[in-house]
Amino acid sequence: MHGCIFENGTESDMLLRSLSSELYKDGRRVSELVENALSAMLVTEDDKASGFIYVLRSLSEHPDVKAVPNLYKIGLARRSIQGRIQSAANEPTYLMAPVALVSTFQCYNVNLPKLENLLHRFFDHATAKIQVTDTQGNYHTPKEWFSVPIETIETAVRLLISGEIVNYSYDSVTGQVSLNTGRQ
User: Fold this and answer.
1) Are 11 and 1 a contacting pair, CB within 8 Å?
2) Are 115 and 54 in contact (CB under 8 A)?
3) 176 conformational bin, left if phi > 0, alpha if psi -120 to 50, beta if neither
4) Which segments of the chain does DSSP mark as H helices, in order?
């Protein structure tokens, strides 16, 4: 044991306690490997591909767009994401500008619109309200754009996939996903 013995005779493994304390900060932890938990998450030939959840970053040079920090679009595609975004510069939903693909998550055996709706509701209070003008001069306020750090979006998607997202909420002050406290 690499511990410490106190004057009153009690012993403590301070290194282990310090490590444990650090591992539990911010709700993170390390646990024993559960063999069948991993196999339950693997895709098999019986699984049906539903499509993709994707995250885009705008490449717009418009000052109103550039002024929004951590601006990302969370969307869905049943097929090719590249095909979907190839004419982004001409579509209000993409802020009339080219976009860069940041993250993709292939989804299986799910109702993709419901999955996307859950993510949008999770980040609802961080929706970016940006108005763009299309080629005919009509104004649009595209949905699905959020002012949220990319790491936080990716964390939320992983929590959604695992089903744990119901225990979490998005804190727009810290820009992080946090465990709901006081839930029964």
Assistant:
1) yes
2) no
3) beta
4) 14-23, 35-41, 63-66, 81-85, 112-122, 150-162
- Residue corresponding to tokens 């869905």: 76
Q: What are the C-alpha distances in Å from 131 to residues 108, 162, 182?
A: 34, 35, 38
Cβ atoms 175, 152 nearer than 8 A: yes
Contact of 97 with 61, CB cutoff 8 Å: yes
Q: Which residues contact 12 (CB under 8 A, 6 or more apart)?
A: 3, 4, 6
> 10-residue block means of pLDDT along the chain (184 residues)?
58 58 53 52 84 96 96 93 94 97 92 91 95 96 96 94 90 92 59
Amino acid at 171: D
